[in-house]
Amino acid sequence: MRQSSDIFLTALAPAIWGSTYLVTTQMLPEGYPVTLAVLRALPAGLLLLALTRCLPPRAWLGRTFLLGALNFAVFWSLLFVASYRLPGGVAATLGSLQALMVIVMARGWLGTRIRKGAVAAAIAGVFGVALLLLGPDAGLDPVGIAAGLGGAASMAAGTVLSRKWQPPVSALSFTAWQLTAGGLLLVPVALVVEPALPALTPVNLAGLVWLGLVGAAFTYWLWFRGLSRLEPGAASMLGMMSPVTAVILGWLWLGQALTPLQIVGALIVLSSVWLGQIANRPSAVLPGLALAPAVSRPR
């Protein structure tokens, strides 16, 4: 029962992330992706720091900024490049490769065995996302493809290392550290590559509040909490809930058509997520490493 609860709560994070496209396109000004990413991450991180009153010790600063870069700064920046240069379906399909990357990285960094069932579930999930999102206009821009793959690799590395490096603090504090670090790293990028943000409307502010408080502070707390309790491969499969939510919201709020092929794709994705939880159970850890602690503390 406890593991089922952990899976459900962790799955809430990517399911809510699926609202990002709707909120961004309908409520936020166009042309300021990095600046908006800063406003999504940094205020949320500072708010959580104020609530937890727990700053990272000096020994954890390097790891915190590396994780903040992988999970936020690098990932979001490459995601925006891919989104601008590729149709949304292509970018999302490349992002779904993250589950396969996590399986490989977890083998190297955590000693988790690569299991055929987990690989099959991840491949099925990618296929389902492709059916759900790919259309006839799926162009293949080389820079966009590289950015999409790089973003998936960045998030995959952040997922595995967030499990490997578990500090002796609450998940809320760990979330605060990473959001703040990621936001700080994005500030100079926004100042260099984007013009000043125009005056924000009440609708813009509401969108930022949603993305910051719910889409960042709340969901990443759920996500990092889940990574401390679930195998990385299982958690990464839950990430495929995001495109399913995005398509459903587009159908409900924007009146976008939902084809039979997309319905089949959504069912394949949901089935692959379920199978991924079974295939990535803790028994997948190599026998010689089964008793090794999941926490790596700085010396």
Automatic annotation (TrEMBL):
UniProt-listed Pfam families:
EamA
The answer on whether this UniProt entry bears the keyword Transmembrane reads yes
> Would the keyword Transmembrane helix be found if you checked this record's keyword annotation?
yes
Q: Where is the major localization of this protein? A: membrane
- EamA domain: from which residue to which, for each copy? 7-133, 144-275
Bilayer disposition of the protein: Multi-pass membrane protein
Membrane-crossing segments per the record: 32-52, 64-84, 90-110, 117-136, 142-162, 174-193, 205-223, 235-254, 260-279
What is its subcellular localisation?
Answer: Membrane
Keyword list (alphabetical) reads: Membrane, Transmembrane, Transmembrane helix
| UniProt xrefs under InterPro entries | AA-Vitamin_Transporters (IPR050638), EamA_dom (IPR000620), EmrE-like (IPR037185)
Family per record? Belongs to the EamA transporter family.
Name of the protein described by the UniProt record: EamA family transporter
Question: Which species is this record about?
Answer: Hoeflea alexandrii
